[in-house]
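Methods, example record. To illustrate the input and output format used throughout this study, we show the complete record for ABC transporter, periplasmic substrate-binding protein, putative. The sequence lines were provided to the predictor; the line carrying structure tokens was produced by it.
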Amino acid sequence: MRQQKWSRWLIPAMLTAISLPLAACGGSAGSAAVDASSPPDINAAKEQAEQFRTAGMPDDWINFGEFYQSVCDTYQLGCNGFAVQGVNRVDTDMSSAEEIAAFKNETTNAPMCSDIGIAFGQVAETEGVLLNYTPKSAADLPAAYKAHDGGWVATAVGVISIMTNTDVVPNPPRSFADLLKPEYKGKVSISNPVTSGTGQATVFSTAAALSKNKGQFDLDAAMDYWAEFYKRGQRNEAEFSAASFERGETPIRLAYDFVNIQAANLVKDKGIHTENVIPAEGGVWQPSATMCNKKTEDPDLAKLVLDHTLSKEGQLTFAKVGARPVLYTLGKLDVPAELKANWLPESQYVNVIQYPDDSWPDPSVVADRWENDVLTAGG
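The corresponding predicted structure is encoded as:
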């Protein structure tokens, strides 16, 4: 599963300071000098698909392995889309902020495309790192679900859930209120809201779930909650991994519902018992997005990735692992019942709200408040 490193750096500092190591894979015939808004050239994409680099898109994150294989097969590119096999695609694990920094700072062999929390889309646009290409099918998306001038589109929608290893914690938490109980002290893993889209989604979920006015968004209530969470020592300081979860070292995890669904399915085969629930207070529907880099050496392949993201085939690859395709949430795609069978029960989502006007706060605002109102106040 995609992991996020804990850091207290703020986003602007990361974007100017981070220069990540280059993966050992070559570019291709693509060039940043080409007309980014023109349709993709399939023949050029075939060359580019011989070796390409992504970031923050491991095979098991929203099913990106199968998604990229679908890109290879649909356009007959002759490539292998699974990064774990290392034949054509290499993926480097990064948080949303790190991905934008890589797009900005790496001058050769930069990542072609990455997955981001949708709130980070505005950061990528401000930093001017995006490929100026918009799929024709993006016309079906509202303005808040795509870049103004091209380069990112929403992929699938998730809600923060609580996954518990019930072999270690037989009385699992089922609400945000439960997570503050003494019995869960030092047991709860969360992602870093300073750098991570999942971390920001976790803050947004509490802002929606804990608002005094139902259906509204209260960032103050969220910060108060997390400051109390830290004061009580609830956070597990160890880095979460599938292995640490199995061993019971990180027995409770807050992450997107589809991520926890996949994680639970993987450990089920090993005899590990889990519970995965949407917090009783609710949360917020939050899209993830795919963004592509204006400096990529593989622009035609990047365009096909953006096109395929909003195709029926591409959208249904996300549904297979418990994520709700963005076109499904907009009423523009039918998802077969057999794919929905892997989703959490609809009854768990009754208190989940849509973010007002889909106008997400800038991640730097959340990062700054997390630093000052949570980490400092919470000790």
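Annotations derived from this record:
The chain has two domains: 42-154+289-340, 158-285+348-374.
The CA atoms of residues 19 and 106 lie 7 Å apart.
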